Structures are given as structure tokens and as C-alpha cells.
Amino acid sequence: MENNREIVGWTVKMALAVWALSLAAFAIICTYMESRTAIVLYGVWNLFVFGCAYIRISRNVTRVLGKVDECIQSMIAGDPKEEFSPQEESVLGKFQFQNGKLYEMLNGAREREEKQHRELSGMIAALVHQVNTPLTNIQMYCGFLVQDELPQKDREQICEVIQAQVEKLGWFAEGFTKTMRLEDDIRRLNPAGQPG
């Protein structure tokens, strides 16, 4: 693939060369023609030359921007494609390389976030299970307490069991709170750490 900078440079040089030749031709024609007609012809010729150069450069820029768009769209779609040669030491090659690095970083961050979400869901499910067991026990023993024919000694034992289950819930809540504080402290200690 021809280097885009070379295409634009070649187009500008050709336009300047044609313009210089037409200026020399204009000087010669002015000696044989009426100067007003020669000026009009020279102006039309210059419009044609620079119009052609503009169209060629515009097409090249549009083509390059189309390739940049394809490069970005392929990354958005999750299937990055190389539109510019990696060996090409150009701004576009560097742009594509940097976009590729950014894609890898964002994709890695998304994967880490999904993994953390799965781990958090598992921890929450385990916590809910651990909390539900004492709650179920408390509910069941409270049902025994409302029975009128239950002896006082059994009531005291049931109250001890309920107290133990409440302490177990308190222990879970305290451990959960400490874990959350520890995690917050860890996040504050290294907020800018990025994987290499």
C-alpha cells in the first residue's frame, strides 16, 4: 500500500509543477495575445489544476478516514482488524497500534469486572445461606415459645438457643462489616494500580 503522505506530497508537487509551467506559458502567451483574454484563460487553467489536486487529496483523505472508521468499528464489534500496515512508520500506523492497546486494556478490564461480579454473586449467595439458617432456627423456636403447655425449663432452653442464633447473626454482620472496611482500605491504598 502506498504511503498516504507520499500520495499527498506527490499530488502537491505535481500541482505546483503544472502551475509553474502554466505561469511560464502565461508569460509567453501575454506577448502574443490580448492580456485580458490571457488572464481569463490563465485563471480558468489554474482553477482546473488546483481543482484536480483538491479532488485527489480529498479522495485520499476520505479513503483514509474510511479505513480509520473500519478499524474502530471492528474494535467495537469485538474483532479488531488491521487496516494499516504495522511496519508503516506513520501516524496512522501509530494510531492503529494505540487503539489496539486501548482495546486490549478495555477488554481486560471488562473481563476482570465480569470475574469480580461472578465472585461477588457467589459470596452473596453463600452469605444469604449462612444468614438464613439462624433466621429459620429463630423462627422455628419462636413457634415453640407460643405454645401454652410448654414447661418453663423448656422455655429457658429455647430462649438460650434463640440467643445463640442471634449472636451468630451478629457475628456474621460484624464479619461482613469488617470485610467491607478492609476492602475499602485496600482500594484506597492502591487506586491507580493497573496491570502491566
UniProtKB/TrEMBL annotation:
Chain ranges of the Signal transduction histidine kinase dimerisation/phosphoacceptor domain: 121-169
Source organism per UniProt: Ruminococcus turbiniformis
Question: EC top class, in one word?
Answer: transferase
Write the record's keywords in alphabetical order, separated by commas: Membrane, Transmembrane, Transmembrane helix
The yes or no answer to whether the keyword Translocase is present is no
Protein name, UniProt field:
histidine kinase
Q: Name one Pfam family in it.
A: HisKA
Which reaction is the catalytic activity of this chain?
ATP + protein L-histidine = ADP + protein N-phospho-L-histidine
Keyword Membrane (UniProt)? yes
| Enzyme Commission number(s) from the entry | 2.7.13.3
Residue spans crossing the bilayer = 12-33, 39-57
